[in-house]
């Protein structure tokens, strides 16, 4: 589609100024929307109907012409911007030049559990947006039915988290719920067993496939502190990952990927 780049929005244009504020949590809360950057995230936002506005540089318009065409078909407004404006919208060192402002896409916990999910992923007090996005992406790859961020967790709609999810935020139900005990209670009420990951669990990961005889919710702890002891004790099962080398532990994303993959194999063959 043809855009008039002679009249591109600059970094001082009010619409750009307001969009740039969405990179901060306070800005997202006030505006009731969020911003995503990059081809994967923008394409998913457009395809799922979450995007309301696109901002694109002249170079990006040429590179991502198919995304702009899809946006036009979805009646998404596309605005030409300067390279300087792109830098003001980006939270990356080298902007891709394509951005989308999106409606909120997070689910309520009740809605996410309403469809009787068999495979749920729970991150407790996940603080790093890159880890949050990676959890969403792995869960999507492995066929999970929902991802829940419980406790004082990072915003899954932050630009970095969305980018790390590579668009998966728009493909799978994602919940943010501060009440950890409430999350655990609703999982139990829905008939979903909770499985904690811990160094001294009674079940080895290689035997965890048997847990999928019942609906399962993997519970992953904070990057620095792991899961609180009371939460580990209250879980229906505790799984450990055998370490055969000299490493002391695994990072959150790696451990989560291994656990989710075992469940995916058991459920999908």
Secondary-structure-derived class: alpha/beta
On the 0-100 scale, what is the average pLDDT?
95
Number of helices: 12
Order of helices and strands: HHEHEHHEHEHEHEHEHEEEHEH
Strand content: 15-25%
The radius of gyration over CA amounts to: 20 Å
Largest sheet: 7 strands, parallel
The percentage helix is: 25-40%
Provide a descriptive summary of the structure in words.
- With 269 residues, this protein is an alpha/beta fold.
- It has twelve helices and eleven strands.
- The strands form two sheets. The chain has a seven-stranded parallel beta sheet with strand order 7-6-5-10-8-11-9, with helices on both faces. Strands 1-4-2-3 form a four-stranded mixed beta sheet.
- Strand 6 (146-150), helix 9 and strand 7 form a beta-alpha-beta unit.
- Helix 8 (129-141) packs parallel to helix 12.
- The longest helix has 17 residues, at 252-268.
- It is elongated.
- The mean pLDDT is 95.
Key words describing this protein structure:
single chain, 269 residues, alpha/beta, 7-stranded parallel beta sheet, 4-stranded mixed beta sheet, 11 strands, elongated
């Amino acid at each position: 589609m043809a855009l008039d780049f002679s009249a591109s929005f600059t970094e001082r244009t009010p619409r750009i100024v307001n969009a740039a504020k969405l990179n901060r949590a306070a800005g997202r809360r006030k505006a009731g929307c969020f911003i995503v950057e990059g081809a994967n995230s923008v394409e998913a936002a457009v395809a799922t109907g979450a995007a309301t506005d696109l901002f694109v540089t002249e170079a990006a318009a040429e590179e991502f012409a198919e995304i702009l065409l899809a946006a036009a078909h979805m009646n998404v407004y596309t605005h030409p911007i300067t390279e300087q404006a792109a830098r003001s919208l980006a939270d990356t060192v080298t902007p891709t030049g394509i951005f989308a402002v999106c409606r909120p896409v997070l689910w309520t916990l009740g809605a996410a559990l309403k469809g009787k999910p068999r495979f749920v992923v729970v991150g407790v007090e996940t603080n790093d947006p890159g880890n949050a996005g990676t959890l969403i992406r792995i869960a999507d790859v492995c066929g999970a039915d929902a991802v829940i961020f419980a406790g004082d967790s990072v915003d899954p709609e932050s630009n970095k988290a969305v980018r790390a999810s590579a668009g998966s935020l728009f493909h799978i139900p994602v919940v943010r719920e501060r009440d950890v005990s409430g999350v655990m209670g609703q999982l139990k009420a829905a008939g979903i067993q909770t499985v904690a990951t811990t160094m001294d669990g009674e079940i080895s990961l290689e035997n965890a496939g048997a847990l999928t005889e019942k609906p399962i919710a993997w519970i992953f702890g904070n990057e620095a502190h792991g899961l609180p002891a009371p939460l580990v004790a209250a879980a229906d099962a505790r799984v450990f990952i055998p370490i055969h080398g000299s490493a002391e532990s695994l990072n959150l994303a790696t451990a989560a990927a291994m656990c989710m993959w075992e469940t995916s194999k058991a459920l999908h063959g």
